[in-house]
Design brief:
Number of helices: 25
Shape: globular
Number of strands: 20
Oligomer: single chain
CATH class of the largest domain: Alpha Beta
Number of domains: 3
Length: 667
């Protein structure tokens, strides 16, 4: 065992953190030591005691070595059986098809059951004396090593235990980033972990590791909650075909209808209560309360809830839609045949299916963050935060943005209790054959709003997490009447206890008038005229040139998937201002194609990896040019005020059939 000068090493490490992690350094010098003690043996740190209880049952270096040896024999990782997690669409399945043909032609074997390389994250829950960190860097365990240590004392003790500057230098050499989350509460730690995961991309999330270094109540809670969250973040953002559809819908809407524009900003504070009504199964027990106070609260109908409300003689003030599919038009048109919708204001994402607005009194549109259509037609900095993934999220975001604070949730179940339905018993999904599809989606359990455990699935769970997050942004507490999943930070409320008798219908009428007057009226075609089309139509060529250089370099240098993705991220940054509209349309599929190819490439032998990547680059280049050609056609049509030709997705099925390739993937 090597003896160290504890104080000298601590000061050296503090300087290293001052240079590299100044925010953590500033916090560290003010950490209040909570009573733990560093245990030395022959002048060398070997353990930590808290209230005379040792953290490690043996010398910390031996503990760490044994722990890592055992861990890597049976690691805890995110692994997938197929690339369906890669947000597949016709264009990315086309790439898989071409790469599969390349593998057949060149006898490349794809047979390993675990990723061999390109692991994105190694999450370490617990730092202690940090004797395990250098080993992880030496093993090239992941591109990012993320360390969570709830106890600030332990971080301070690690400064006297290991040479952090040496670890940082080794990480630099291996191009590994080390992230620290120190001294935070359980919820803040989870939020920080989530931010790291989302900001660094989920392209290489497969294979990511989860190691508990030591056990404590906080460590276990952070580990369990974040691991479930990380598993749910497998979907890359957007894909080409969907972006094209949303561009087409937005173009039609801004060209053909007058609308009021909902921009994120400062609005008059509103005191009136608002009922956000979704179609979860618990709406059956609470719809009487909604009806009782419908003339005194603002009623917001979310998606397919509209028909349920109208059939119970409840006329909503606002109806929210977010989907861009033809089914929305079909459902609304059938509802309009039975009920008069002309007293309802439609609130929708700009990407709504064309023609839906004609059934309503008026239309208010908003821009969804991150979409190509939002960047193309609107000021994206004013898009509505947390307005997805489900309609209830859009409803809450809209109402909070308009200045309301007194918000009740009905039927926002985000799941179901065991044995219950996935939606209200009279919901249209049961009539159109989607019952079985929804039943497949319940794959995890979360706490219930009124106790017990609730079954949920990916999108319901992301919706639940989004509703929790938006309360922090707007500094409100939602009142949740739904008998479904617990939404963190919200207040469970039994709907029968609601009393709005002090509010008059005239107050509601005045509030609705004030809301409308705050929003600017946009004339049909106005936004089209404000676009600089000369700049727009040069973007395709700018991107083509930059992408050609990327491909040429990748081939010449025989780059890995990690290097190729890093090069593409650089291309994005360098061309953000010059080709932003093009980038927004193709970014999701560009990353998805890298991710899908890496799924297979990570399962090839070292000897065949470069040959595999050659085939990927050929396919990636061909399909990227295919997308760019279509974007060029679309931009030129919009410039002339015309509708673009009917979009036809890439025909991967004919390609697979021609080459006798069995595609075991799903769109």
């Amino acid at each position: 065992m090597v003896t160290v000068n504890v104080e000298k090493l601590k000061n050296k490490n503090l300087n290293a953190f001052k240079d590299r992690y100044p925010a953590l350094y500033k916090s560290a010098i003010h950490f209040d030591m909570a009573g733990s003690k560093l245990v030395l043996k022959n002048g060398t740190p070997v353990n930590i005691t808290v209230d005379n209880v040792e953290l490690y049952g043996q010398d910390s270096q031996k503990y760490c070595q044994t722990q890592l040896d055992d861990y890597f024999k049976k690691p805890s990782q995110i692994l997938y059986e197929n690339p369906n997690h890669c947000n597949l669409s016709p264009i990315s399945i086309g790439l898989i098809t071409k790469v599969a043909k390349h593998c057949v032609d060149h006898t490349i074997s794809v047979n390993s059951q675990v990723p061999l390389r390109n692991v994105g994250f190694f999450f370490v829950f617990g730092l202690g004396l940090a004797h395990h960190i250098k080993d992880l860097v030496e093993r090239d365990a992941a591109f990012n090593i993320v360390i969570v240590e709830p106890v600030p004392d332990f971080f301070i003790h690690s400064l006297s235990s290991v040479d952090w500057r040496e670890i940082f230098d080794l990480a630099d050499e291996k191009e590994i980033q080390i992230h620290f989350i120190v001294g935070q509460s359980v919820l803040k730690s989870i939020d920080a972990l989530s931010d790291i995961l989302s900001s660094l991309s989920v392209v290489f999330v497969e294979g990511s590791h989860f190691l508990i270094h030591y056990y404590s109540r906080d460590i276990n809670e952070i580990y369990n909650k974040f691991q479930e969250y990380a598993k749910s973040q497998f979907i890359s953002s957007g894909f080409f075909e969907d972006e094209v559809k949303m561009m087409e819908n937005t173009y039609h809407n801004v060209l053909n209808i007058d609308f009021r524009l909902i921009n994120r900003g400062s609005f008059l504070s509103q005191n009136l209560p608002v009922f956000i009504v979704a179609a979860g199964p618990s709406l059956e027990r609470d719809i009487a309360s909604v009806k009782k106070w419908a003339d005194r609260a603002i009623i917001v109908s979310c998606g397919t809830t509209l028909n349920l409300l109208l059939s119970n003689d409840i006329m909503p003030d606002f109806h929210i839609e977010i989907e861009n599919v033809e089914m929305v038009y079909e459902i609304i048109s059938k509802t309009a045949e039975k009920y008069d919708l002309k007293d309802i204001t439609l609130v929708s994402s700009s990407t709504l299916t064309a023609g839906v607005s004609e059934f309503f009194k008026q239309t208010w549109l908003y821009a969804r963050p991150g979409l190509s259509s939002s960047a193309f037609f609107f000021d994206e900095t004013k898009s509505l935060l947390y307005s997805f993934p489900l309609v209830a999220n859009a409803g809450v975001s809209f109402i909070l943005n308009m200045g309301f604070k007194n918000i009740y949730l009905f039927g926002v179940d985000c799941g179901r209790y065991a044995g219950g339905g996935h939606h209200h018993k009279d919901h249209i999904y049961y009539d159109i054959g989607l019952d079985e599809e929804f039943e497949k989606r319940f794959d995890r359990s979360v706490p219930g709003n009124f106790g017990g455990t609730v079954e949920t699935g990916h999108f319901f769970d992301v919706s639940r997490q989004s509703l929790a997050s938006i309360q922090n942004v707007y500094k409100v507490q939602l009142k949740n009447c739904s008998h479904g999943a617990r939404i963190n930070k919200s207040l469970p409320i039994v709907s029968s206890t609601i009393d709005l008798s002090s509010i008059t219908p005239s107050q509601k009428k005045l509030t609705l008038k004030n809301m409308e007057e705050q929003l600017p009226l946009i004339q049909k075609g106005q936004l089209i005229q404000e676009i600089n089309w000369e700049d727009v139509c040069t973007e395709v060529e700018i991107f083509k040139k930059a992408f050609a250089e990327l491909i040429e370099t990748a081939r010449a240098e025989q780059q890995s998937f990690r290097e190729i993705y890093a090069a593409y991220r650089t291309l994005q940054k360098q061309n953000h201002n010059k080709a932003n509209r093009v980038l927004r349309i193709i970014n999701g599929s560009m990353a998805g194609m890298i991710r899908a190819a890496a799924f297979y490439g990570n399962r090839t032998s070292d000897e065949q990896t470069n040959l595999f990547i050659e085939g990927f680059l050929d396919a990636w280049e061909e399909l990227t040019l295919w997308m760019l050609d279509w974007i060029d056609i679309m931009f030129n049509a919009y410039q002339s005020g015309q509708k673009a030709p009917t979009f036809k997705p890439y025909d991967y099925k004919s390609l697979a059939q021609k080459n006798k390739i069995d595609l075991q993937v799903n769109e």
